[in-house]
Amino acid sequence: MAIEIIKEPKVSRESAAGNTHNKVYALLKNSTKSGKVLDIPCGSGAFLRRLLDGGYATYGADLVQHEALPDAAEFMSADMNRTLPYEDATFDVVVSIEGIEHIKRPFDFISECNRILKPNGMLILTTPNISSLRSRWRWFLTGFHNKGKLPLDDNDPQPRHHINLLSFPQLRYMLHTSGFQITAIHSNRIKLASLLYLPCWPVSRLITSLVCKKGAKNGTQDTLFRHITRQLYSFDVAFGESLILVAHNTRQQSVPPVSD
Question: Which fold would CATH assign to domain 5-192+238-249?
């Protein structure tokens, strides 16, 4: 299949909320200094350039190929709603910046990330944070979340539409039922406007805790719900602009049988 090339000025732009690329790169660098890293969707290649400068074996994937993509990065056309064009256990790290909220089949995408990662491989996923108190307040008043402030124009569907904004509990469930465990939770930045909702924080957490405690069917579920509530009301989730989740797959390295 021929790869469509978008003819734009050869400038790589960060298509993400402010400081997202900086934070993701710092998390990656603190975890591993080398390895095969896939950036999907890679857009015009801004994060690919960081990966190349950092000495990583750099791969990019997206629906279309931008002219601004660095030549040194290996690019493949890929649809995040479908099977990704890579063999099992290919990558050490998959980075997905502001992509999952644009696709119809996020569960399938997470499962594909698990498949193409090596055992104990790392996924760094970012998405607009609709679990923040600021976004929840906007939902209460308008029916629309922050980063999705207006109705989507169904007369003119666009790939950039946020068709699948996901809350932290949804993302956690998606990852933990697809072979991953969340190992770190961060945000790109906390805006001053978000701190205006600080007085709501303890009240909302208390009500959520009581609801979860009442709904738990047994001690195991109660422990799980309390853990999820602590994560949901961590500072980064309660006030961050974008969620940045680090998860590792739980697949173990296969061990060859011992010969007699």
Answer: Rossmann fold (3.40.50)
